[in-house]
Specification:
The chain has 340 residues and is mostly beta strands. Helices cover 5% and strands 45% of the residues. The protein has a single domain, classed as 5 Propeller (Tachylectin-2, Chain A), CATH 2.115.10. Strands 16, 17, 18, 19 and 20 form a five-stranded antiparallel β-sheet that branches. A four-stranded antiparallel β-sheet has the order 1-23-22-21. The chain starts with 28 loop residues before the first strand and ends in a 5-residue tail after the last helix. Bound molecules: beta-D-mannopyranose. Beta-D-mannopyranose (BMA) binds next to strand 8.
Length: 340
């Protein structure tokens, strides 16, 4: 292995398939049994997609965007022995506030899950008189304590870094509008305590590359590597038939992650398979999590497909970093500190 994954525990039994011979130039290959979560997975839930997982105890745990049969999304907890076959709790996660009172958002979608210093944090999109970021912590996946919303509306696609950098928590987000948002760049904010957020910086914007020319948004929690923070994100293009969501990749500066070190000018994965092209919202690949193993450099990417399914794809750290660098175009708005 040329490069190293830092700060993450070993995951010796992580889900994995070797790269097929016919995978072509692109260094990401899909799991052959995709999608891993099919329609109508639990009574009262029509679709699960855009969801996040993490190693936990002797298996895996996850927080899942579950679109109920009334059309409203909430977050459900799921458990798996192998990271591929999941069983779900029958009821959506019920949060409590810091005083112990029950808290249920009006809706909740696109959750991310990250462990910092032994505590798991959930970050998602919810209503705060407009689409905004919700946040909660849990230590045991039984009690979920809702924290203050980090930002004012409108904002979506929040992704927390898995450790403090320079003594502060860091959160990527995508300021947006109240609808389907025809614009959007990724920003980063800092907090000493996960309550007060500031020092907002621009990280990277939509680009002149056509596949990400409408908007971009954070995806999986960044992976700390010897080469910088590896970020899988989504990039969106517009067509006469609607938006198309692809997966992109970038490397951010280890100590000042508002600076982009490398950014792949081409997509890493774009809708091509039936479960990506056909569904409730066609042509969506929306990454929300990775499982990665420092001992082997293996990375499994979990992504929502067509707002209908969860799918997986694989890569290795060496392959993905070499590919991102070989195809990197970093523009001035990516490489400066992002403060105007
Ligand atoms: C975005 C979010 C995602 C969704 C995508 C495509 O705005 O709502 O949850 O996957 O649109 O519909």
């Amino acid at each position: 292995m040329k490069y190293k994954i830092l700060g993450s525990p070993s995951v010796p039994d992580m889900p994995w398939q070797e790269k097929p011979a016919d995978c072509g130039d692109i260094p990401i290959w899909r799991y052959t049994e995709n999608p891993i979560i099919d329609r109508n997975p639990i009574p009262g839930v029509a679709r699960i997609f855009n969801s996040a997982v993490a190693p936990y105890e002797d298996g895996y745990i996850g927080v899942f965007r579950a679109e109920q049969t009334d059309g409203i999304p909430f977050i459900y907890l799921g458990r798996s022995k192998d990271g591929i076959h999941w069983s779900f709790e029958k009821e959506k996660i019920c949060f409590q506030d810091e005083q112990g009172n029950e808290f249920m958002p009006l809706y909740a979608y696109d959750p991310r899950l990250v462990r910092i210093d032994g505590i798991y944090y959930l970050i998602w999109c919810q209503d705060a008189y407009g689409a905004a970021i919700g946040m909660a912590r849990t230590e045991d996946f039984k009690v979920f304590t809702r924290l203050e919303n980090p930002f004012l509306p409108f904002n979506r696609n929040a992704v927390l870094f898995p450790r403090k950098i320079g003594g502060t928590y860091r959160l990527l987000s995508r300021p947006s509008d109240s609808g389907h948002t025809p614009f959007g760049d990724i920003y980063i904010s800092e907090s000493p305590d996960l309550v007060y957020w500031g020092r907002h910086r621009h990280v990277m914007g939509k680009s002149p590359e056509w596949w990400e020319s409408v908007k971009i948004g954070g995806g999986a929690a960044p992976i700390e590597t010897s080469e910088g923070w590896l970020l899988f994100y989504h990039g969106v293009t517009g067509t006469c038939n609607g938006l198309v969501y692809s997966i992109g990749g970038a490397l951010l500066d280890p100590e000042e992650p508002s600076k982009v070190l490398a950014r792949c000018s081409t997509y890493l994965l774009t809708p091509e398979k039936w479960y990506e092209e056909r569904g409730f919202v066609p042509n969506v690949c929306f990454p929300c999590a990775t499982i990665h193993d420092p001992d082997t450099g293996r990375i499994a990417i979990y992504y929502g497909a067509a707002d209908s399914y969860v799918a997986m794809a694989f890569t290795t750290l060496d392959e993905i970093i070499d590919y991102i660098r070989a195809h990197s175009v970093v523009r001035e708005s990516d490489s400066e500190i992002g403060r105007r």
